[in-house]
Every structure is written in C-alpha cells, then in structure tokens.
Amino acid sequence: MTAVGRRYEQLIAAGELQADDDQRRAILTLDRLAADFEAQKSGGGFLAGLFGRKPEPPCGIYMWGGVGRGKSMLMDLFYGCVAGVPKRRVHFHEFMLEVHGRLRTEREKESGDPIAPVAAAIAAEARLLAFDEMVVNNSADAMILSRLFTALLAGGVTIVTTSNRPPGDLYKDGLNREHFLPFIALVESALDVVPLNGPTDYRLERLGGMPTWHVPNGAEATAALSEAFFRLTDYPPEDRANVPAEDIAVPGGRTLHVPKSLKGVAVFSFKRLCAEARGAADYLAIARKYHTVILVGIPRLGPENRNEAARFVTLIDALYEHKVKLLAAADAAPADLYVAGDGAFEFERTASRLMEMQSDAYLAAGHGAA
C-alpha cells in the first residue's frame, strides 16, 4: 500500500470519511498507479534508460459516477500523494480552452497538423495530467479529442480523470458523434475505467438537509452559506480566512475574477455577476467550470433593475442547463424577486426554475447532465 491507501484509511479512522466499498475499490486502482510512479522513480526509469528503452507510462484511470460520490476527493488525495513527477491538475473545460488557444497559435505558423506539436508541448510540461469533470458538449472538442489524447499517451503522459458519465455516454447525441467514437474506444482500451456509484451522495449529505435559498440577506444567511461552503469543500477550519480566489477564462479572450473558489465551488455576489456588464459567455464559463455556485446579496428587483433582472435570468438559465447547484441569499423568495418591470411576466419561468433547483431530484443530478 502506498501513501494513497494509507491516507484514505487514516481519514476513515479519524472519522473524516465513511467506509465505502466503491471508494475502496477505486483507491486500490489509484494506489496501484501511485506505486507504478514510485517504481519508475526508484529504478524502472533508470534501468530502461540504461538499456536505451523509454519507460512505458503508467496506465491512467477514468473514474466515473454520480454527483457527490467522492470522485474529486479521491483524485485530490491521489494527486497530493504523487511526488517527484511533473504533474498538473486542471478542470477539463479549462484545459480544452487552453488547447484550442494553442492550436490557433500553431495554425498561424502554417506548420501542418497543429495537434502533434501542441501535444508534444503539453507532454513536455507534465507526465501526469489530472482532469476534473470530463464532459464533452461541443463539436470542437469532440473532433480533436481522439487525436489529442492518442498523441498525449504516445508522448508518455498518464491521464487520470473524473466524469459523471461512463465513457460510452460521453458526447451522447452530439453532432457527428461517429467521429467521436474512436475517443471512447481509446479511453476504454488505454485507461482503467473505474465506476464509483455507491448509494451515498456525500455532497448532499454534507449539506445535512440545510436550505439552499436563504431569506433575507444578512448575517444569519451569510453564516449559513459560509458553513455550507466549508462543508462542501472540506476546507480546514484553521484556514478559513485564506480561501483562494482565481481568474477563469471567458471566450473572447477575457477573464472573470472569482473571489472564492475551491473544489468546484465558487462564491459570487449578485452585484459582481448581474449589476456589472456581463453576458451569456461569462455565465456559461461559470456553469461549465463549477458544480456549485453560492450567490449572495440578491436584492428584491423592480422596474429600475430591468437590466440586472435580465442578466439574472441569463445566469440562472446557464446554471440550470448545466445542472449547477445554487445556494443563495436573497431579500425575497423566488416568486417575489421581480414582480413588476420589463420582463416580469417572463421572470416567472426563472422563479419556477429557482424553485426546481432546490428539489432533491435537481440536487442529485450530475453536473453538466443534459
């Protein structure tokens, strides 16, 4: 047993995790991969180099299952235990945005197929790539993934990824899906496919049945949402004053500042998202990257707030379509948020969605699920 397995058992013994048969099976596979990396560092890589052979990269892992099953937690545990290996952990959507940017740069050089040099550059930067939440929902990604990942694997990269879907369901019903099928075949043949579909939704369990819509704004709502954030992210209490921020890419070359971001959970103010000039591209970037959004300071809206109301509608549409979980503090219940002003009648649909987003069925849906 490597540090991965030992750390998992320590967390169970300390009461921080519950014993879970599916998770233990996944840990065995992650432990095997960590051991393969250790073996290469301790001698396998040296001997292979001595005899002029390039060592084979350890076999990667595709870990899939429903929301809240602990996929990201297990990958983080594994990632933190692998040392001495050039590695990178990145959300899958962020990685693909970066790849398309690199491909555009290569095309400007007019050097033929741009995928080979891009894959070679990525392989030179990391021997271990860890992706969170692999989901394929656009044809631009679908058309290049098979060639890109084939080149990465050939370049010595080991890939570990999580997803809410089994490989065969990726890009389901997508445009020209037949061109995507080689990628599915590659994943199923080149990676260990590990299901993680135990009976417990740990993310929902952490919320402990607490409400997701808090009225009114104020200290009590803020305290409840703060507690929800730390439950969802398992953030150490001693570090609560140092929650990290980040900037995420928005199509068009812009970035969006996220004041608090951890393990797929982001915190925003209504003012930042809806009182400033933002559009669908911003909200889609958020919806694709985060499985949970905490939104504070939602006011009761009136005729003078029609622009803010319109942006809020677009934001909720994006979150709803990507099954993002929404925890919020507002000055009114959804049905009473915007009752007079341009678009107030249409806002009734948004109010209905906000109510649905509080249901157990919605909260149990996988992020990005159609």
Average residue-wise pLDDT = 87
Helical amount? 40-55%
Spans of at least 5 consecutive residues with low confidence:
none
Q: Shape from CA axes?
A: globular
Total of DSSP H or I helical runs spanning 4+ residues:
14
Query: What is the CATH architecture annotation of the largest domain?
Result: 3-Layer(aba) Sandwich
CATH evolutionary superfamily of the largest domain: P-loop containing nucleotide triphosphate hydrolases
Structural class: alpha/beta
Into how many domains do the coordinates divide? 2
Task: Report strand order across the widest sheet.
Answer: 2-3-4-1-5
Tally of strands:
12
Strand percentage lies at 15-25%
**First-residue to last-residue Cα separation:** 39 Å
**CATH hierarchy class name of the largest domain:** Alpha Beta
The name CATH uses for the topology of the largest domain is: Rossmann fold
Supply Rg. Answer: 22 Å
Order of helices and strands: HHEHEHHEHEHEHEHEEEEHHEHEHH
Major sheet summary line: 5 strands, parallel
Topology summary:
Elements: H1 3-13, H2 21-50, E1 60-64, H3 71-81, E2 87-91, H4 92-108, H5 115-125, E3 128-132, H6 139-154, E4 158-163, H7 181-190, E5 191-195, H8 202-207, E6 213-214, H9 219-233, E7 246-250, E8 254-258, E9 260-262, E10 265-269, H10 270-275, H11 280-289, E11 292-298, H12 306-321, E12 325-330, H13 344-356, H14 360-363
Parallel strand pairs: 1-4, 1-5, 2-3, 3-4, 6-12, 10-11, 11-12
Antiparallel strand pairs: 7-8, 9-10
Protein name: Cell division protein ZapE
Pfam family, one: AFG1_ATPase
GO molecular function: ATP binding; ATP hydrolysis activity
